[in-house]
Amino acid sequence: MDVVAETDSVSRENGDGSHGQRRVGLLYDDRMCEHYTPDGDYHPENPNRIRAIWKKLQSAGIPERCVVLDAKEAEDKYILSVHSKNHVNLIRNISSKQFASRRNKIASKFNSIYFNEGSSVAAFLASGSVVEAAEKVAKGELSTAVAIVRPPGHHAEQDEAMGFCLFNNVAVATSFLLDGRPELGINKILIVDWDVHHGNGTQKMFWKDPRVLFFSVHRHEFGTFYPANDDGFYTMIGEGPGTGYNINVPWENGRCGDADYFAVWDHILIPVAKDFNPDLIIISAGFDAAVGDPLGGCCVTPYGYSVMLKKLMNFAQGRIMLVLEGGYNLDSIANSMLACTEVLLDDKPISGSSDGYPFESTWRVIQAVRRELSTFWPTLADELPEKLTSQKAPHPHILISSSDSDTEDDKGSKFVPKNLEDVLQDVIQPLSKLKVNEDSHDQVDATSNSWRSEFSTISIWYATYGSNMWKPRFLCYIEGGQVEGMIKQCFGSMDKTTPKEIQWKNFPCRLFFGHESSHSWGPGGVAFLNPERNTKYNTCMCLYRITLEQFNDVLLQENGLSYDIESPLFDLSALKTTTTKEFNFQEVVKGAWYGNAVCLGKEQGIPILTMTCSPSNIERFKYGKLPLHAPCEAYATTLIKGLVEGKQLSEVEATAYIEAATKPL
Ligand SMILES: [Zn+2]
């Protein structure tokens, strides 16, 4: 049957003629692409996000099978039910001519916000669209709906835009159904926020409201992950009549994947949803916990999202809405949204599989949440059987060690590396239950370590210009451990021999600070080096004589990689070429923040190597395409300690030296 996707039609029957079956509403509008950075600079929350999703759904023939809805601007009265008048007025007027000269200044007063001429219309459309779709689902005109909207909403608070969010779209629609259209009979709403960040705005808006069960699973890391406060902790359970109706599942670490999310669904969300018995479910569907996301650092697959969604469709008579929040890898968000939409269309069984177990930290968090909430949800009162909780992947910090950089594109493995079982045995939890291929164990062990013996005979100088200038901090990368100010432990190198020799040297290059936060230090920039020779600058570096094998392991840790590698990061012949010329680059970890080894010359005939970001990122830093960020206090203090204890600078000089490095390139 020929069906033409007319995106401008208001609504129509299912194209495949499946009347009476699942009617899935689909909402997308190009006008929401009018919100973008005023200077055209790259920003992860950009119009291509929703375009990519729409294109993917179109190429899969999805719109023809859905009821395509038109976007509508939200009426003030609905937005005002969760936002202040001041805030609504600001967003309404921010795109007008009279605000043009002040727009950037106003945006800078908020946390992670930009405005342009298209921001107002996009914000009103995003909220209005979710309201529109929610009404149709509540009325039963649609079974379910997917709202591909931006700007996202869940960080937006009552009186404040925040974290790329202008209006809290999901909260506006929730309040609209409960208070604006009580005759539709929607009295209890479950909001499931699976965006990798905590839905701080939504939490606050329904904090005391028992009609809304707000559930958020997010990276928290003890308050260091954005929005970097305690609001997302599991002890935040609501207040007054809303006590017990706010559930946070705060991950202690990144790298959580399908197995971790499924465990939370099975042992927290689904039992509670059964008891709460919602009339409608709205998913704050950010896809930044998806594998490949540059900000999220988690590993949820499209299959994982399908399963999570499918499990929720058993409630509220299937009345469920997906509302886009974050998600910044265009392929990941498009594939994930496609997988979810196919589940809503209910046309085929979910295919795929997920191996592996949850992290130990996942079980710890699940048990803490269950204990905290068991008085309100008796179904959570039982202790989980040990048989279940003993099924765990090794601690992520051991495989993915502490690092000064977030690895942007590494997918990581959470299974124990085949060649490492013996090495890790005495440091981590009993490994007997882990998925280790016993048969191939010896064989892999023998072959994969051969490069190590070769690399252990090659000496290099590792030139450090960041926190590693302080010897006790650097030794964490060799011996393992953690020093004051660090929020994560390092695993150390395979070879734990301390450096043979240490010396200091100055180099004519520019030191600078970039990146928003790091695994080791939390929010704040970390040091990078522009290795171009420029006699205007004098960067003080501490050189450690270690082996190439150890340098390889330091690079793994800096870039958040596991030891599960069959071959070294370095190509020895390429390394020889790198070391023939000063300031030569070799990319050793593709796309990672410290993925480039640079030769700074030789000392006593031994090459001096350091690590920094790619030449293209250095250009981006130079021209402001990537933001510079001053270091956090703990990180700066460590650098200063290194310079002072290394007898290079006085404390006053060291402080000024760090301060100078925060200037634009
Ligand atoms: Zn997010």
TrEMBL record:
Question: Region Disordered: start and end of each range?
Answer: 1-22
Q: Which reaction does it catalyse?
A: N(6)-acetyl-L-lysyl-[histone] + H2O = L-lysyl-[histone] + acetate
Alphabetized, the UniProt keywords read: Chromatin regulator, Hydrolase, Metal-binding, Nucleus, Repressor, Transcription, Transcription regulation, Zinc
Query: Where is this gene product found?
Result: Nucleus
Query: PANTHER family from the entry?
Result: HISTONE DEACETYLASE 18-RELATED, HISTONE DEACETYLASE HDAC1-RELATED
Membrane-traversing stretches: none
UniProt record, GO biological process? epigenetic regulation of gene expression; regulation of developmental process
In Pfam terms, one family for this protein is Hist_deacetyl
Q: Does the keyword Nucleotidyltransferase apply?
A: no
GO molecular function, a single term = histone deacetylase activity, hydrolytic mechanism
Q: What is the similarity comment for this entry?
A: Belongs to the histone deacetylase family. HD type 2 subfamily.
Instruction: Write the protein's name.
Output: histone deacetylase
Q: Which cofactor does it need?
A: Zn(2+)
Looking up InterPro entries in the UniProt record yields:
HDACs, His_deacetylse_dom, His_deacetylse_dom_sf, Ureohydrolase_dom_sf
